[in-house]
Amino acid sequence: MSVKYPVLEGAEPFYFEGNEIGILVSHGFTGSTQSMRPLGEAYANAGYTVCGPRLRGHGTHYEEMETTTYQDWIHSVETGYRWLKERCSTIFVTGLSMGGTLTLYMAEKYPEIKGIIPINAAVEIPDMAAAASLEDVRFLDAIGSDIKNPDIKELAYEKTPVKSLGEITELMKKVKADLGKVTCPALIFVSKEDHVVPPSNSQEIYSGIKSADKELVTLDNSYHVATLDNDQDIIIERTLHFLKRVLETSSLQG
Questions:
Q1: Residues forming the active site
Q2: What are 189-200's pLDDT values in tens digits?
Q3: Cα four-point dihedral sign 232, 247, 95, 9
Q4: Which of 141, 149, 146 is nearest to 119 (CA)?
Q5: Taken in order 93, 96, 100, 102, is the CA torsion positive or negative?
Q6: Tens digits of per-residue pLDDT, 85-101?
Q7: CA distances (Å), 200 to each of 126, 133, 189, 223, in order?
Q8: H or E segment and range at residue 124
Q9: Comparing C-alpha atoms, which of 199, 38, 225, 65 is closest to residue 143?
Q10: How much is the pTM?
């Protein structure tokens, strides 16, 4: 019998209706929408239409996460994408950690996406791949809340299902193999020090995508959950600048 877990307070999906430019915002593995809400609110305040879906099995209980697959997580993001498509003519995608992996997945699958902003995105984490093959272990200690600022805590699970590590590993493999399909403008953020996703992932993404317009920005004062950390304002500011520039360039070309 499956238990139905309520959604944790602060982990609900968020939607802001604005202009016809949409931004899809995805949180990461074992995390929740709480890690992306400040960004979503900032983009909404700038006039954009924003959708921050809750990935299936997230923001409730890690036992529920254990029952989900990476296809479920893709489905959650695609549902958000469809919500935006009904309202917007142009869509950008951003995400943290596995949310960044899903951002890349979306750009690989939907070439009409206008631009992407992956933040400490993951395409290969050897430690996770190794842990995914552990036998007789269901849950490991959590990876959440890798934040430099001592006053901030991420709303994330205290345990990670071993089965889920197998799922994210498959997703990363798939996304990494198709990086060459990404051609849209890309603004890639990477924390210099990250205890969850090796920063070399972002360099690999930067090198692997075929976008003519791409930039790699190093964050000096944040750990993995950079969206809640000391460099939050830099991410917001640089993203808003990126959106504006890409939109202006395309209207000149149009």
A1: 97, 194, 224
A2: 999 999 999 999
A3: positive
A4: 146
A5: negative
A6: 999 999 999 999 999 99
A7: 12, 23, 12, 14
A8: none
A9: 225
A10: 0.97
